[in-house]
Amino acid sequence: MSPRLSYAEVFFGAAFAVAVVAVLAPVAGKWLRPTQNYDGFRAVAAATLQYATDNDEVLPLAMSYDTVQKRWRYNQFTAVPSGSVAAGGRNQFPRKVEESSVVYNSIRPYLNEWSSLGTPGLPIVENLTSVASPLINLNYNGLLHAWPVPQMYDEKIVPLYHQAYRQNTRALGISVPNLYCAAINAPLCRFHPRALPGKPTVAQGNFGYYWVPSARPENFTVWVVDRSLAFLQSDGSLRVRTIELPTWPQYAENVQDSPWSSFDPTGIPGTPFWMTDCGEPYLPKARGISIFYAGFFRPDNEGTYSSLECDFGGG
Question: Residues 95, 184, 88, CA angle at the centre, nearest 5°?
Answer without folding.
Answer: 30
